[in-house]
Amino acid sequence: MKNLIKTSFLFIVMTFAISCACMKDNNTVSGKVESIENGKDGYTAKINTAKNELYFATISIVNVGGPENFKRFKEGDEVSVKGEIWKSENENHIKVARIISVK
User: Fold this and answer.
1) Under 8 Å CB-to-CB from 70, ≥6 apart: which residues?
2) Domain that residue 79 falls in
3) Would you say 80 and 100 are in contact if contact means Cβ atoms under 8 Å apart?
4) Which region is the signal sequence (predicted)?
5) 42 inside domain
6) Tens of pLDDT along 79-88?
C-alpha cells in the first residue's frame, strides 16, 4: 500500500513537471507591429501573428522590469514578446513581461 502511494505521488509530480515544461512557450507572441497607441507609462502595440491573429500587447516600463528592459516598437517591426495572455470577448491581449526580440 505504501509503495502504491509513493508511486502515485511520484507519477503526479512527474506529470506536473512535464506539463510545466511544455507550457513555457505558450505565453509568447511573435509577429508584425501594425499600430501603436501611446499610454501613461508605456504603449499598446497591435501585433499580427503569422497565423493572422491580432494581439494587443501592453508594454510598460514597470511590467518589463525597468527602463533598461523597455524598448519602443515602431510600425512594421517584427517582434517577439512574452507575458500573460488573456482574451476579452473577441480580442487577444498580452501583458508583456519580457521583450524577446525586435527587428
Assistant:
1) 42, 59, 60, 61, 64, 99
2) 29-102
3) yes
4) 1-21
5) yes
6) 999 999 999 9
Residue 34's CB is within 10 A of a number of other CB atoms, namely 12
9 assigned to some structural domain:
no
Q: CA 8 to CA 13: how far, in whole Å?
A: 9
DSSP string of 72-89?
A: ---TT-EEEEEEEEEEET
Per the structure, how many domains does the chain have?
1
Percentages helix, strand, coil for the chain (3-state, rounded to 5) are 25, 50, 30
Section 24-33 average pLDDT: 84
- DSSP-derived pairing of the beta strands 54-60 and 42-49: antiparallel
DSSP conformational letter for 27: G
* pLDDT at res. 22: 46
Closest CA to 85 of 41, 53, 62, 61: 53
